Amino acid sequence: MMDKKDWLNNEVDIAWCPGCGDFGLRNIVAEAYADLGLKKEELCMVSGIGQAAKSPQYYHTSYFNGLHGRALPAAAAIKMVNPELKVVVQSGDGDMYGEGGNHFIHNNRRNSDITVIVHDNMIYGLTKGQAAPTSQLGHKTPIQVDGVIEEPFNPLAVAISMGATFVAKSSVHEKELTKELIKQAIQHDGFALVDVFQSCVSFNKVNTNQWFKDNTYILDKDYDPGNKVKAFKKSLEREPWPLGLIYKSDSRKSYNKNVSMFKNDSTPLYKRKRDISVVKKIMESMK
Length: 287
Fold this sequence. Notes:
Blueprint: H1 4-7, H2 21-36, E1 43-47, E2 62-65, H3 71-81, E3 86-92, H4 93-99, H5 101-110, E4 115-120, H6 155-162, E5 166-171, H7 175-187, E6 192-197, H8 209-214, E7 216-218, H9 228-235, E8 241-248, H10 255-258, H11 260-263, H12 276-285
Parallel strand pairs: 1-2, 1-3, 3-4, 4-6, 5-6, 7-8
Antiparallel strand pairs: 5-8
Helix pairs in contact: 2-7, 4-5, 5-6, 6-9
C-alpha cells in the first residue's frame, strides 16, 4: 500500500513560490490517495496550463498535461478509453473557469465520471497577477488598475445548474475537511467538483490565507446536500463562503454508463478485440 510519501514525487524541482498554497493542497491530495488505498497504476492525473496545473508532475503516478483550458476533454477521453481508472484533474481557477470555461460547462452537463480539484486563489499566478474569473469586484491588479468590474464567476452555482452531481467547496486552511471532500469526490460516480481556496503569496496580497479564514465558514452537520434548490441557494453565498459538500446526487448515471459501448460491456476499449474486417468493408465500399 502506498502512503503519503510514496505518492509525492520529490525527485523534481517544484516550481512554486515559497509559501504558495499549492504545497498545502499537494500534501492533502497525497494523503487522500493514501487513505483510499489507491495504487499509482489505478490513477491518472490531468491538468491544463498554469501554476496549479503543474501539480500532476509532483506525484508518482501517470499524468497528462494538456493545453491551456483543455484539461477536461483529455480527462473525459482517458476515462472513456479506460473506465477502470480513477481520473483526477488538478488545475487553477483561470485555466478551469477562464480558458476552460466551455469545457467546464459541458462536462457538467454530461456528468463525466471525473474528479476536478480546482486551486482557487482568485488570481492568475503563472502570468504574474492579472485578475482571474474568480477575482472579486474592486480587486486592483497591474492590469485592472481601477479594480475588477466584471461579476466574479461562481463555479458552484454553474456546476449545480448544469448538472454536476457532486459539488463541494473547501480551503487549504481546513485540511481535514478538504481531504475528506476529495476522498468522497474520487469515490463518486459522476462529475465531482472540489473548488479549494488557497493563497497566492506573490501576486494576490488581498485574498491571503488569513482572508480566506476570515471569510469562510463550515456548513452545519444538519445541512442536506441532497436538496438541489437549497444547494443552489447556498452556492450563491459569499463573504462568507460556505465550506463543505454543497450538493450531491446519485440519481443520474455518469456519462460513461450512458454511452452505448459501455452499457452492456464494461471492458476498457484498449482491451477489446478489434474486428478490422468491418473497417475494410467500409473502405472497400468507398472505392
